[in-house]
Amino acid sequence: DISGPVGKVTYTPVANERGGFELDITVTRIGDNEYFIVSTANTTVRDVDYFLRRFPAYTNVTITDVTHGWGMLAVMGPNARKVLQQVTDEDLSNEAFPFSTAKFMDVGYARPLAVRMSYVGELGWELYVPTNFMVHIYDAIMEAGKPFGIRNVGMQAVNSLRSETGYRHWENDLTPDDTPYEAGMGFGVKLYKGNFVGRNALIAQKALPLTKRMIQVVLKDSKPKLYGNEPVYRDGKNVGELTSGAYAFKIGAATGFAYVHREDGAAVDLAWLDADWEVEVQGQMVPASVSFSSPYDPKNERVRM
Q1: Which of 77, 47, 80 is nearest to 64 (CA)?
Q2: How many C-beta atoms surround the C-beta of residue 164 within 10 A?
């Protein structure tokens, strides 16, 4: 449901006819009839085409790919507010700029769209910047962040942080064959809003036991690493495999996501998780703990600091 006030940021899956993830996007309302959509970087052309081919003929809608006109700087971490406050006069307090909201604000000589979201499990903003101002804003932020130890990070660091906080990744953890309910992301589905592609399939699935469901796995040995596709065993029986994995520095062990299945038609629930779990890593069976929630900050409180 993206019908909130201007400045509201909404995460939503876009479902196919089977209820699976066809797209994984955030939608920011930047005007009464204008939205800023962010999708995965390497599926932009596909995603634009997906929308264009599904607009009803009578709909008055324009969609413009602005990828090459905008860049994004992610300023994230416990000191993100303190750093950004050095380069803007905007009030960045929780009361004035709460989580899951966005606004255009002055930063240096530019006016980027600042989105209060995070993919690393810590306080943060995504700054969507006109490309001709990117270097200027980057330099201003890096200079302001020196007293706080600001650092550039790579995607492997991001992968580690998002994994330990339970954030799924499109193409690995979320695919057209997986539904939001199976992925533990049913909060992104609003069945009451009226008809949409995949609604009937999701209603039908919600009425039945979930025999396939995503769990989070943490190895009990701190040495082995996880990367994805490792088989997962419950009481000695293979019930799934990892979709992605990374070393989680906050908990001191590797963690990953896995879809697990029940063949008896019953639900994958907490009672069923109460068993002996192992992951096969390079031919070795490694004991693991499993849960439906993330091992670090399961209530997602740190992004709302």
Answers
A1: 47
A2: 25
Confidence at residue 101, expressed as pLDDT on a 0 to 100 scale: 97
pLDDT at 42: 84
Amino acid at 195: N
Contact 212, 261 (CB under 8 A): yes
* Model pLDDT, residue 181: 98
- What pLDDT was estimated at residue 269? 97
In the block, which residue shows the tokens 């999708």? Answer: 39
Q: Name the helix (H) or strand (E) containing 107.
A: none
**What's the CA gap between 210 and 213, in Å, rounded?**
7
**What is the distance between the alpha carbons of residues 66 and 131, in angstroms, rounded to a whole number?**
11
Q: What is the pLDDT of residue 150?
A: 97
Which positions of the chain have pLDDT values less than 70? none
- DSSP-derived secondary structure for 125-167: EEEEEEGGGHHHHHHHHHHHHGGGT-----HHHHHHHHHHTT-
- Residue 158 makes CB contacts below 8 A (sequence gap 6+) with 119, 120
Specify whether the backbone of 199 is left (phi greater than 0), alpha (psi in -120 to 50) or beta.
alpha
* Calpha distance 187→151 (Å, rounded): 33
Q: Is the pTM of this model over 0.85?
A: yes
**For position 164, what pLDDT does the model report?**
96
